Amino acid sequence: MDQPPRGQPDLLALVARHATSEGRTDSPYPGLWFWRADRPFSGRKSQALTLSLLVVVQGRKTANFGAQALTYDPLHYLLLTGEGEFESAVIEADPERPYLSLSVAMPPDVVARTLIALADSEVGGGDEPAPAYVSRLDAPIVGALCRLLEAVGDPAERTVLAPLIVEEIVFRLLRSEAAAVLRRAVRRGDEARIQESMAFIRAHASDRLTVEELARRAAMSPSHFAHRFRAVARVSPMRYVKHVRLHEARALLLRGARAGEAADQVGYASASHFTRDFKSYFGVPPAEYARRLHAAPGQPA
Question: Where is the HTH araC/xylS-type domain (predicted)?
Fold first, then answer.
């Protein structure tokens, strides 16, 4: 019988501490959330918004990507390789031993920087990566996840250490043999232009940005720019614009701004459009998200 990786009991205890009620529970750290189910369920539609790590610590789950169905458990993780839709089902859970998992959405900036660094020894080109894959969970990733969950409870560690731990997790995931297709998708020569475009988006996220304008600045055709941007950042250019805006809005909400004020400041013309996007990204409407995190132990960062 396969043995769980070192540190698995500690990770289970940390997730159980956060996932105390059924459904999704957000953490004070953006992109990190937990899930609990006391009984099996099927047919839940989900959306991947960026490269994301999903780890089951108790129970078992399947994710269906059309022709591709993947099962994962406490011995294996699921890596979503970029934005896309899928259908999931919890296939092992009961009130005595509930299904417990965590998810970490990786910042596109960190993904791009890591893929570019790791692409040095790879040959460019290759097939389009599958929307997701399952791989063996090892002790280094479990250890990093334990440190991340311990850090998010302390405001100073959440601000200083948690981003460094996420960078380590991205590095370990993208350095694995299973991620070779992702690395091969990064071609030498266009990294600087994509990183400059990402920096421009971060500095001008509240402006009205288009793929055509961003491609012109990068001296590429719109179609080539969009393809290369996605290969490096694992999200489309306009999805990245939305990512930056919503994370800026999240910070404003946690500092006391109203939803309408936050929407206006980050570049949304419609408050209802902002609320819809925010709920899709963070799981709940803006005001509810801020209320939950302000009520949680520790001040959100």
Answer: 195-292
Give residue 301's pLDDT band: very low, low, confident or very high (50, 70, 90): very low
Domain regions of the chain by residue span: 1-185, 189-301
Contact 197, 217 (CB under 8 A): yes
Alpha helices (H) in 73-107, listed in sequence order: none
Q: How far apart are CA 132 and CA 53, in angstroms?
A: 10
Burial class (CB in 10 A: 0-12, 13-18, 19+), 223: exposed
Contact 25, 57 (CB under 8 A): no
The whole-model pTM stands at 0.88
pLDDT in tens, 147-184: 999 999 899 999 999 999 999 999 999 999 989 988 88
The string of DSSP codes covering 214-254 is HHHHTTS-HHHHHHHHHHHHSS-HHHHHHHHHHHHHHHHHH
Query: What are the tokens at 84?
Result: 């896309």
CA–CA separation, 123 and 273 (whole Å): 42
Identity of the amino acid at 215: A
For 246-279, the pLDDT digits (tens) are: 999 999 998 889 989 999 999 998 889 999 999 8
Q: Which CATH superfamily is domain 189-301 in?
A: Homeodomain-like (1.10.10.60)
CATH for 1-185? 2.60.120.280
Rounded average pLDDT over 12-17: 96
From 44-48, 75-79, 100-104, 124-128, the region with the lowest mean pLDDT: 124-128
Q: CB atoms < 10 A from the CB of 98, how many?
A: 19
Strands 52-58 and 76-80: antiparallel
Helix (H/G/I), strand (E/B), else coil: 100: strand
Cα separation, 59 vs 173, in Å, equals 22
